[in-house]
Every structure is written in C-alpha cells, then in structure tokens.
C-alpha cells in the first residue's frame, strides 16, 4: 500500500500545449466553405449592381415617371438614332398588372392550398397522403412553359365560361365589368394559371407548418372532447397562422415574377386595365420578354431598369415572407 | 400449453372506425346528392360536367351537415362540414395535375416519332409534317445546358449548405436568409443579369454557357436548401466521433459527414436539375435557338427543349403545335424521371451505406 504512494512515476510527461487554433487544413476548409457560402450574397449583389448599372440612364432620364407613367415609347429621330428626349419609359401599367394577376392567383390559390394542406396533415390516410404529396411536389417541378400551354389550350375555354358567368352575376362590381365583350386571354385567366402554379408551393409550406403543431396540444384538445375542427380552430390555426401568411407571400412573390406562363396566356396590352375579365393586361416580367426581341440597345437599358424594379419588388416580398415563416417555428403559444 | 395457444389474441377495437351503418349512411348521402344535382341539371338552366361537380359538392356538404346535425349536434355538423371543405380543396388541388398529365399525353403522343430522337431541324421548318425532323438537337442542348449549370451550381450549393450546417460562422443567419431570398429571384431577372454582365460587355452574341450561368443562379438555392436539410439529418454523433478520433474538421466532414449524406446530396442535385430543365425565359434571352446540333456551349446558338417548344408554339400551325406538345411530353418525361429518381434516393435512410 505504502509503496504505491511513495513510488513516484518514472517520468512526468511534459505538459501538452492545448490549443484551439485550427490546423492549416481546417483553416483552408473553412475559408473555402465560407467563400462558397458567401456566393449567394455576391450573386444577389452582382445582380443589383449590373441591373442598376445598365438601367441607370433610363432611371435618371425618366425619374419617378418610370414608376408612375404608362407610356412606353422608344423614339427614333430622323437619322435613325435613338432619341432620348422624345422617348418615354414608364411601367406603371405593367406594375399594376403584375399586382392584379398575382393577387388573383393568391385569392384563388391560397384557400385551396391551405385546405389541401389541412387535409393532408390532419385527415388523409397514410397511403392517400403519400400519393397526393408526391403528386403535388411533382407539380412544383413542372416547367412554367407547360403551365402556359396548358392554360392556353385547356384552361382558357373553361376560364372564359367562368368569366362570363362572373360577369353575368357580378357585373355591378366595377372590376367585373367588361368594356367590350372580349373575355379571352384576360388577367382573370392568367391569375387562374398562376393560382395553379402557386398551389404546390403554398401547399407544401403550409403542410410543413401544420405538421409542426405540437402533438401534446393536439392530444389535449382531443382529450377535452373536441372534434377535429375544434382542435384545428383552437390549436392548429393559431399556431400556424403567421407561417401561413409567410407561405402566402412566397406564393405572391412567385406569381409576381412569372414570365412565360403569363406571356402565353395573357393578351399583353400596354395600358392600365382594372377590368380583370377583359382581354388586356400584362406583368413586368412578360413585358420584358415581349419587348426584348426587337429592342434597340437603348430600349434594352429601359428593360434592365424594369428588371431591376421587378427584382427589388420580389426580393422585398420574399424577404418579408421568409422572415414571417422563420418566426413561426420558434414562437407559438 | 395448448390451451394457451387456443386463446384468441384480442383484436384491437376501433370504436372510431365507421360501422356498416355509417358506411351505408355515407353511401346514402352520396346517392342523394348525385340524384339532387342530376335533377337540378335537368330542370334548371345549369348544365355540363362542371355544374354537376359544383352542385354535387354543395349538395353533399349540405346533406352531410344536416345528417351530422341530427346525429350529434352543431359541433359535429361543423366538423363534418369542414372535413367536406378540405376534401374538396385537395380534390381541386389535384385536378390540374391530372388534367396537365392527361393533356400532355393526349396532345403530345401524336407527335412522337422515332425521328424525334434521331434527327434535328436543320432542314425542316416547324410547320412541316410532324414525322419530318426531330428534336435531337434540343435534347442535346438541354443536356449540355443542364450539365454545365450543374458543374457551376452544385459545388456552390453544397459549399453553402456545408457553411450553414458545419462551419456555422457568423454569417450563418444572413446567408440562410439570402439563400431563401435568392430562391425567389424571377427567372427573367436571372436572364437579364447574365445578359447585362456577360452578353453586353463580352460575348455580344448568344451562346450556351450564358444560359447555363443563368440556370445555375436559379439552381443554387434549390441545391443549397435541399443539401442543408439533408446535412441537418446527419446525427451529430458522427461528427463528434470523427473529431474524437483526432480528425480535423475537414477530415470529419470530408470522410464522415459528406459520405453519410451522399444519397441526399445527389437528391439535392437532381431536384435542382428538375427545377431548371424546363426553364424558358432566360434561355430565350441568352442561348439562341438553333435547329442544328451544336456540341459547343461556348460558341454558337444552342437549341434546347424549352426553346424548341417555344418556337413551335409560336409558329402557330396545327403541325407545329403538335410538335410543341411532343416536345413538352419529352421534357415532362425527363422531369418525371428525375423527380422519381430523387424520390427513391431521398427515401433511403440517411447515413446508411
């Protein structure tokens, strides 16, 4: 016993230096990964810079009229050159058109999406759920040109029929009036196509949020004898509300930036049109595509400015949406 | 022993499951609503399949509400009404998918010919009969565009995801935010950006790589977010084990985390490809739409499926529109195959070898 105490260790190992300094390989690794991670910042910044750089001259010469006027005219003088003085670029009509079409899409698409998400989360049997979720996720991957052609050839005819019905019964509401009897290729039908396009996005976000509803609260509601609807009203809706609002705004952002489908379905007319059933409208993205084909270098600068406005607009809507969605998971009652 | 075996295992009872009487009632409600809506269509000016569906849903909801009300009072009735409403919602949400798939097949299969996959359009117009010319050039073009977009965006996307899950430096929150903001960039804006940044100052003409760059911008957020989700699922035990064995972070990420997440990262890649394969707007601005095979993305106009569909649709004759639908059918088949592959890979258990 005593011997073990008195016996000193033969050698005391030298005190190791403990350092938290990462090795070279780790520093390189972190450097590479961080620079990769910062790419999104760089790309968004570059988009802003390049569109601003190209659109600046237009924005400067047009000033606020670029946002408030609805006159788009690339004038050419007698020598065949671009005439900056007599040219007018204003995208008000297309901005309003963008909002109209996107809002129609949200009004039609959101109740369907949220209802579908509720069904999938709280009602659907496992098998039905698996099939439906796959189908809706697949729809999110459909190319927009497909929605455009489908809208043009298939939805158009039903859409016209519904538009006529709405006009027949609700024409006392100003926006459902028709200045002329043309209901084809209207903002209403474009809105319907966009509604179909945002259904998968809004459904999958809502479903994700509803599925995070705390199980103990759901079970508490059932234990108190609540019906499923009572549970939804008392537990799931309050929990998911802000997240759903975020999902709706993501859908809105997507609908605002859509190009090809709107271009295909909508009759793009460069004027402010509040009559949503009437065959005239447009949005900024489809207008850019429409004018791009035969635009002079100067008009392209104006289109770049329009792209800048669209970019900033969608960035704001998406950022707000993401902030709202991100807050849902943490708060809750 | 034998007496024990004879005791029947008690079957779990499900008092909430519909009894035969409940099922009969449901059948009765369906029959009654069908009858009522048919009668209404016969006697009223309403007509057509759509009217029937609408009337049927309304009739069903009302009768169901009344039956539940009689059986169990107001809250049960509201409950069944709500169930009816959300069921209607999911049916409406799925209808377009069915309609789209059906339409694409009905209209597209008429344009399918073997020459579609063996010939290009260099000496045919879109208005020619559908059995002349093909879209080999477009398939090659789309393939090249997507491959180059992948080469650019997959490393960036996965590095972003690694930054968000492994390094977690001080930019984690802002980058997460920016990646989500980036996923909302309209495709036409991505196209305009590349046009302004590369086409105007440098190339001054259309070529394939510009299209790939624009597609890469649209693909990065998808790849980054899906990879991030996958990497989050890797248990931190694995990382800690790697570090505890004396590995640096680099080695534990490269030799443990990434291999464990491999199938998930491939899923992310495939979903990114599915997202951009049919992207049309930037392609129209940047790549041109040659009808001849072009294997060089760095020079010359490059035809692609979206461009082919767009031009064929724009040509406007019955032949060209059949071509457009055939093109869409091919594109859709590619998207569905990619999507199914992603699903199968993604459903595998993460971390399993």
Kindly report the average pLDDT value of chain B. 88
Please report the distance between the alpha carbons of the first and last residues of chain B: 45 Å
Biggest sheet overview of chain A: 2 strands, antiparallel
Q: How many domain modules of chain B? A: 2
Number of helices of chain A: 13
| Biggest pleated sheet of chain B | none
Would you tell me the structural class of the helices and strands of chain A?
mainly alpha
The total strand number of chain B stands at: 0
Map the helices and strands.
The complex is a heterodimer of chains A (333) and B (353).
Chain A: H1 2-6, H2 24-37, H3 39-62, H4 65-68, E1 72-73, E2 88-89, H5 92-123, H6 126-140, H7 144-170, H8 187-211, H9 215-223, H10 228-257, H11 260-265, H12 284-292, H13 297-330
Chain B: H1 2-6, H2 20-43, H3 48-72, H4 74-108, H5 136-167, H6 172-182, H7 187-203, H8 208-233, H9 236-244, H10 249-260, H11 262-276, H12 281-286, H13 305-315, H14 318-347
Helix pairs in contact in B: 2-3, 3-4, 4-14, 5-8, 5-11, 5-13, 7-8, 8-11, 9-10, 11-14, 13-14
Tell me about this structure:
The complex is a heterodimer of chains A (333) and B (353). Chain A is built from 13 helices and 2 strands. Chain A has helices spanning 2-6, 24-37, 39-62, 65-68, 92-123, 126-140, 144-170, 187-211, 215-223, 228-257, 260-265, 284-292, 297-330, and strands at residues 72-73, 88-89. Chain A has a two-stranded antiparallel ribbon. In chain A, α7 packs across α8. Chain A is flat, with a radius of gyration of 28 Å. Chain B is an all-alpha fold. Chain B folds into 2 domains: 19-97; 136-347, MetI-like (MetI-like fold, Orthogonal Bundle). Chain B is 73% helix and 0% strand. Chain B is flat. The mean pLDDT of chain B is 88. The interface between A and B is large, with 91 and 90 residues.
């Amino acid at each position: 016993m005593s011997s073990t105490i008195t016996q000193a260790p033969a050698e005391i190992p030298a005190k190791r230096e403990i350092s938290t300094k990462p090795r070279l390989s780790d520093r390189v690794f972190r450097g590479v990964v961080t620079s990769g991670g910062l790419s999104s910042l760089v790309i968004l910044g570059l988009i802003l810079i390049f569109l601003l750089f190209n659109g600046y001259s237009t924005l400067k010469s047009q000033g606020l009229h670029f946002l408030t006027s609805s006159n788009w005219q690339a004038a050419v003088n007698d020598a065949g050159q671009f005439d900056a003085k007599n040219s007018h670029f204003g995208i008000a009509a297309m901005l309003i058109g963008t909002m109209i079409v996107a809002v129609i899409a949200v009004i039609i698409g959101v109740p369907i999406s949220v209802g579908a998400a509720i069904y999938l989360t709280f009602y659907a049997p496992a098998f039905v759920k698996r099939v439906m979720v796959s189908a809706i996720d697949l729809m999110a991957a459909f190319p927009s040109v497909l929605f455009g052609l489908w809208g043009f050839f298939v939805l158009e005819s039903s859409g016209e029929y519904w538009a006529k019905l709405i006009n027949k019964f609700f024409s006392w509401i100003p926006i459902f009036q028709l200045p002329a009897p043309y209901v084809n290729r209207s903002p209403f039908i474009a809105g319907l196509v966009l509604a179909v396009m945002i259904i998968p996005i809004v459904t999958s976000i809502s479903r994700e949020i509803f599925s995070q509803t705390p199980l103990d609260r759901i079970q508490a509601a059932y234990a108190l004898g609540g019906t499923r609807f009572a549970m939804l009203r008392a537990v799931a809706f309050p929990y998911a509300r802000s997240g759903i609002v975020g999902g709706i705004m993501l859908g809105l952002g997507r609908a605002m930036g859509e190009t090809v489908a709107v271009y295909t379905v909508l009759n793009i007319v460069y004027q402010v049109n509040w009559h949503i059933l009437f065959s005239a409208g447009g949005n900024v993205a489809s207008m850019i595509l429409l004018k791009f084909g035969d635009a002079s270098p100067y008009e392209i600068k104006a289109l770049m400015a329009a792209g800048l406005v669209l970019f900033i607009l969608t960035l704001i809507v998406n950022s707000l949406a993401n902030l709202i969605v991100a807050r849902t998971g943490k708060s809750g009652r | 022993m034998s007496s024990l075996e004879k005791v029947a295992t008690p079957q779990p009872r499900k008092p909430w499951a519909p009894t035969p009487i409940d099922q009969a009632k449901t059948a009765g409600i369906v029959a009654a609503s069908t009858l009522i809506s048919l009668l209404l269509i016969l006697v009223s000016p309403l007509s057509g399949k759509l009217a029937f569906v609408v009337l049927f849903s309304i009739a069903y909801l009302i009768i169901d509400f009344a039956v539940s009300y009689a059986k169990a009072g107001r809250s049960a009735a509201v409950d069944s009404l709500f169930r009816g409403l959300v069921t209607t919602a999911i049916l409406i949400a799925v209808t377009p998918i069915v309609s789209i798939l059906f339409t694409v097949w009905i209209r597209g299969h008429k344009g399918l010919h073997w020459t579609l996959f063996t010939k290009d359009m260099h000496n045919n117009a879109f208005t020619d009969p559908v059995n002349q010319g093909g879209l080999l050039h477009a398939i090659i073009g789309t393939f090249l565009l997507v491959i180059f977009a992948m080469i650019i965006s997959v490393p960036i996307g996965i590095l972003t995801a690694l930054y968000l899950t492994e390094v977690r430096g001080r930019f984690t929150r802002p980058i997460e935010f920016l990646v989500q903001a980036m996923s909302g960039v309209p495709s036409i804006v991505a196209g305009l950006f590349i046009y302004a940044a590369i086409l105007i100052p440098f190339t001054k003409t259309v070529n394939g790589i510009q299209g790939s760059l624009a597609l890469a911008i649209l693909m990065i957020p998808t790849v980054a977010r899906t990879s991030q989700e996958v990497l989050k699922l890797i248990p931190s035990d694995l990382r800690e084990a790697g570090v505890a064995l004396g590995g640096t972070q680099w080695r534990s990420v490269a030799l443990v985390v990434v291999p464990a997440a491999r199938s998930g990262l491939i899923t992310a890649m495939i979903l990114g490809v599915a997202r951009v394969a049919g992207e049309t707007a930037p392609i129209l601005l940047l790549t041109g739409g040659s009808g001849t095979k072009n294997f060089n993305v760095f020079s010359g106009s490059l035809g692609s499926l979206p461009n082919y569909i767009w031009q064929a649709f724009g040509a406007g004759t019955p032949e060209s529109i059949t071509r457009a639908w055939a093109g869409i059918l091919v594109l859709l088949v590619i998207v569905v195959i990619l999507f199914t592959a992603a699903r199968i890979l993604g459903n595998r258990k993460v971390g399993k070898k």
